[in-house]
Amino acid sequence: MTLQHLRELVSPFSSVTPSDWERYCSHTHKLEEECWRKDGIMEMSNDAIIINTPSDSSKQFEDSSDYQESG
Question: Residue ranges of region Disordered (predicted)?
Fold first, then answer.
């Protein structure tokens, strides 16, 4: 990596003003908050799902008179 190559890589960002940067950071912060909020909702939803399964579900279906094969 040369200094010249580094300058070429960062040159597109030289037009970014402090105001632009502030808006980008603010927008990113809002997106992060939204993701954290949705993540919390998903965790609460997942915690509310309870599935009770017998220790041997195949045996239960074999013995159950309610079980009907589809096909």
Answer: 52-71
